[in-house]
């Protein structure tokens, strides 16, 4: 009887280790998850309540993680476990904020990071903005249409 008990507990330990590994692969940051269609979302549970604060939907996991970091910092203060502690600035007004205020601050940060990453990705994908044209060269009919930026 004792052998079955020990076997069960070791099996449970193996299962929990497997789940932890899968979570690390699927969730690169704390407080975020990926939707089936590829968007990253962030939400956080309010302390001592069953309700959650919705922090938004983002195209990158970094933006969702930064939104989570902002919310957890305003909820739990400087002792909070953050994904990016180097980006957090201590704000004196972090006490006594409502859930709506925390959501607003977190979505602002997440949207800003998402926009910066999206424009950075677009620039890297296009490749045109990094090239500087030779202003001393006359345009040819083939290259003049390629260099138009609207």
Automatic annotation (TrEMBL):
Q: Where is the AP2/ERF domain?
A: 28-85
Q: Which organism is it from?
A: Penstemon smallii
Where in the cell?
Nucleus
Can you name one GO molecular function term for this protein?
Answer: DNA binding
Q: Which GO terms describe its biological process?
A: defense response; ethylene-activated signaling pathway
Q: Where is the composition biased (Low complexity)?
A: 1-13
Q: Which family does it belong to?
A: Belongs to the AP2/ERF transcription factor family. ERF subfamily.
According to the UniProt record, one GO cellular component term is: nucleus
Question: Main location per UniProt?
Answer: nucleus
The residue ranges flagged as biased composition, category Basic and acidic residues, are 125-135
Q: Which PANTHER family does this entry report, sorted A to Z? A: ETHYLENE-RESPONSIVE TRANSCRIPTION FACTOR RAP2-1-RELATED
Which controlled-vocabulary keywords does the entry list? DNA-binding, Ethylene signaling pathway, Nucleus, Plant defense, Transcription, Transcription regulation
- The record's region (Disordered) falls at 1-28, 113-150
Q: What is this protein called?
A: AP2/ERF domain-containing protein
Q: Describe its function.
A: Probably acts as a transcriptional activator. Binds to the GCC-box pathogenesis-related promoter element. May be involved in the regulation of gene expression by stress factors and by components of stress signal transduction pathways.
Query: Which Pfam family is one of those matched by this entry?
Result: AP2
């Amino acid at each position: 009887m004792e052998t079955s008990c020990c076997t069960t507990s070791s099996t449970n330990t193996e299962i929990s280790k497997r789940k932890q590994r899968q979570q690390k692969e699927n969730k690169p940051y704390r407080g975020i998850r990926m939707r089936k269609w590829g968007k990253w979302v962030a939400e956080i549970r309010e302390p001592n309540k069953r309700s959650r604060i919705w922090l938004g939907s983002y195209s990158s996991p970094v933006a969702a993680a930064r939104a989570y970091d902002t919310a957890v910092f305003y909820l739990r203060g400087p002792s909070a476990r953050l994904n990016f502690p180097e980006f957090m600035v201590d704000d004196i007004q972090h006490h006594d904020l409502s859930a709506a205020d925390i959501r607003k601050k977190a979505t602002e940060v997440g949207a800003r990071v998402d926009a910066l990453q999206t424009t950075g990705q677009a620039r890297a994908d296009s490749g045109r903005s990094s090239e500087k044209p030779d202003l001393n060269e006359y345009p040819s009919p083939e290259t003049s249409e390629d260099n138009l930026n609207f």
